[in-house]
Write a structure and sequence with these properties.
The protein has helices at about 20-25, 60, 95, 100-110, 135-155, 170-185, 210-215, 235-240, 240-265, 265-270, 285-305, 310-320, 330-335, 360-365, 370-380, 385-400; strands at about 10-15, 35, 50, 55, 115-120, 160, 165, 190, 220-225, 275-280, 320-325, 340-345. With about 400 residues, it is an alpha/beta fold. It has a 6-stranded parallel β-sheet with strand order 7-8-9-10-11-12. It has a 3-stranded parallel β-sheet with strand order 1-5-6, sandwiched between helices. Strands 2-3-4 form a 3-stranded antiparallel β-sheet, with no helix packed on it. The protein is globular.
């Protein structure tokens, strides 16, 4: 808990071990995946190459380098709520010393006051993020990651939950992998980038089997954007400037996905689908809903006669959008879309996170009666109940005693 309030981290990240694919990938695919290695010949963190193509474009696009020396000065923001960013800080020393293992994950949760954390990938954000990837290779990569994260969560399964990575290059393989991960491994949903895959729009009937499986399994569809994916049109628009691409991709790709799912009727035909729009703040949501509703009288009958609810009603029924605690617009946004349709992400351990001050920032930023449903929002998004919290409390108590 954080100051007596339940806290679900709706989007906490892990750092995959460099040798994950050496250990978990089906041997028949290993020759198609090249890992960076150190001087000792063992894998190290860096850009993975799959079928001859890097999994991210940053290595070749980024002209301006980050400072590598810990002794160099760090630029300090004058903004009152942004001074706790992790870059060039020592706040992750405990995790680095433990090589980002599950113990470090739980330690980070304790530092933030998190009861239950839902884990998302880091390298995996861009692992299969390209068009025309061999579906069987896509499946093998996803299975390797999902098997590893399942084992990672076994350290504290009552507190560590995960979302499955799905081979979206074949919707039927994606359905099969989601069923396996939920029924056999305990996944609480899926991680999917909002970028189009092989030109399939999110309102396309192509995705209907996957939407239906999510409903039938009662698990969450989590949209999570990254940056520098090979299929991202942000690269064509903004080129080498990662700052430009990062700002644009996280908002614009999420907006495109929400427009498709509301106007395209996804929520009309899949009324039990729970969707999270994660790590993109959420002040864009009320404006976008207002824009859709502005056009609704002109276009509903001619272009979307299947819609039976207002756009805001679909959002209130099916959607949650995340904040990271320090955004100045949180209280105003909560007044427009409802604090109960918001959730929160620590973004641990990424360099642009406010960890370990995320919940603290939120409680300083908004009244407690608004902060409470936001901190609890991930429970509603992922379907956690008091039973889940009771088990998490018992596990946390045992860890403290041990």
């Amino acid at each position: 808990m954080k100051e007596g309030l339940r806290f679900v981290d709706s989007d906490m990240h892990i750092m995959e071990p460099p040798d994950l694919f050496e250990r978990y990938l089906d041997p028949k695919f290993r020759s198609r995946v090249r890992l960076p290695v150190g001087a000792d010949g063992t894998p190290k963190r860096g850009t993975i190459v799959i079928d001859g193509l890097p999994t991210t474009r940053d290595a070749e696009l980024q002209q301006y380098r980050k400072r590598a020396s810990a002794g160099q000065p760090t630029a300090h923001s004058t903004q009152p709520l942004s001074g706790s960013r992790l870059q060039n800080s020592n706040r992750l020393d405990f995790a680095i010393q433990r090589n980002y293992d599950p113990e470090a994950q739980v330690m980070g949760m304790a530092m933030e006051g998190v009861d239950i954390a839902v884990l998302y990938p880091t390298t995996g954000l861009s692992l299969i993020a390209r068009d025309n990837l061999d579906p069987e290779l896509s499946l093998a990569l996803c299975q390797a990651y999902n098997n590893w994260i399942h084992e990672f969560c076994r350290y504290s399964p009552e507190r560590l939950k995960f979302v499955a990575m799905l081979p979206v290059h074949d919707v039927h393989l994606a359905c099969r992998e989601l069923v396996r991960c939920v029924r056999e491994l305990g996944a609480v949903g899926s991680f999917i980038r909002p970028n189009l895959v092989n030109g399939h729009f999110w309102h396309s009937n192509y995705w209907d089997p996957l939407y239906t499986i999510h409903e039938e399994l009662d698990v969450t569809w989590g949209f999570h954007e990254g940056v520098s994916a090979l299929y991202s049109h942000m690269i064509e628009l903004y080129g080498e400037n990662r700052f430009y691409r990062h700002v644009a991709s996280h908002w614009i790709e999420m907006q495109q996905a929400m427009i498709a799912m509301i106007i395209g009727g996804v929520f009309e035909f899949h009324p039990r689908l729970r969707v999270g729009f994660l790590e993109a703040q959420n002040s864009w949501v009320p404006g976008l809903l207002s824009r859709i509703e502005w056009d609704y009288p002109q276009y509903r009958d001619s272009h979307a006669p299947y819609l039976t609810l207002m756009p805001r009603e679909y959002f209130r029924r099916n959607c949650w959008a995340a904040v990271e605690g320090s955004e100045p617009e949180i209280e105003a946004t909560a007044g427009l879309i409802g604090a109960d349709r918001m959730c929160i992400s620590t973004d641990y351990p990424h360099f642009d996170s406010n960890f370990p001050h995320v919940a603290e920032n939120l409680l300083k930023n908004v009244p407690r009666e608004i902060a409470a449903p936001i901190l609890l929002g991930g429970a509603r998004l992922y379907g956690f109940t008091e039973e889940h919290f009771a088990k998490a409390d018992a596990a946390a108590g045992a860890q403290r005693a041990g």
